[in-house]
Amino acid sequence: MHLWVPLDVKLSDAGRLVQGKVYGKRSFIIQGVAPPDEACPADLTFLFEPEVETKAGAVVARVQVQNKNGIVVRDPRDALFRLLEHFGKKKSIHTIAQSAVIDPAARLPSRCEIQPYAVIRSGVSIGAGTRIGAHAFIGEGAVLGKHCDISPHVVIHQNTRIGDHVSIGSGAILGKEGFGYIKKRRYQRLRHIGTLVIDAFVDIGAHVTIDRGTIGRTVIGEGTKIDNLVHIAHNVRIGKNCIIMGQCGIAGSARIGDRVVLCGQVGVADHVCIGHDVVVYAKSAVYKSISPKQVYSGIPAREHRAVLRALARLYRTV
């Protein structure tokens, strides 16, 4: 798949951007970037394995590729990051759509973008350079920092606090009431009067739901990245620079340390504590608190080496 912006850039200029050594036709015009198996002769591609075949007119790899124009770099993934960072930036547009519904008591900076049919309620504060997508809803008293990117159809409930440089994918619902009930003659909802705090440089994927605290706060730490279709319940606290992959579910009041990686479809029980620098492999279920700097897997989650030893014994008896 090509970049959403046309490149039309010389190979020599791309070489400077990725800090690599150019060979072949330096004036070759790159019209797009594509994966090796989809690239055409006008494209640039990145070869993480130099022996991969491609029809691309130019390649980026660790070594020179015969019969190709190209760029030699130490790390093709870093080169890909640099190129996409340069050419994939969204243009800043400082406009407020006439169809947006903005309460007079909302505080907007002179430099921001509010797209059509967005709704911004009383007491909302938005930082400079922030983009609010079409049909997004920002509830009363919510605070958004500088240079945030709020995609279309995002719902941010009242009193949510969002730091600078936060990206939120379409359909995400942040700061809603959690799943809390008390049983009398019938189940009655326990009202949630807490808040949600999202620190700076957090990325939140599409259709993520994060509940506000029942009382107190739900907190997402600085630099944490959350994939699509994740649910995070009330009063959860997630540390800094964590990776939460798709379809994870984290139950109420769980505590997750810094630099934790939860792979796809991991479930975390309520009130569990996960230490710093833990990795939990896909489809695992964390029922009890687990120690830092370990790798876990399975249902219930145990140290991964112990799981492998148990599986080895099991299969020896089959």
Question: What report would you give on this structure?
Answer:
This protein has about 325 residues and is mainly beta. It has two domains: about 10-85, MurE/MurF, N-terminal domain (Udp-n-acetylmuramoylalanyl-d-glutamate--2,6- Diaminopimelate Ligase, Chain: A, domain 1, 3-Layer(aba) Sandwich); about 100-305, Hexapeptide repeat proteins (UDP N-Acetylglucosamine Acyltransferase, domain 1), CATH 2.160.10.10. The chain contains three helices and 38 strands. The strands form six sheets. It has an eleven-stranded mixed sheet with strand order 9-12-15-18-23-26-29-32-35-37-38. A ten-stranded parallel sheet has the order 8-10-13-16-19-24-27-30-33-36, with no helix packed on it. Strand 20 (about 180-185) and strand 21 form a beta hairpin. The longest helix has 13 residues, at about 305-315. The radius of gyration is 24 Å and the shape is flat. About 35% of the residues are buried. The model has no long low-confidence stretch (mean pLDDT about 95).
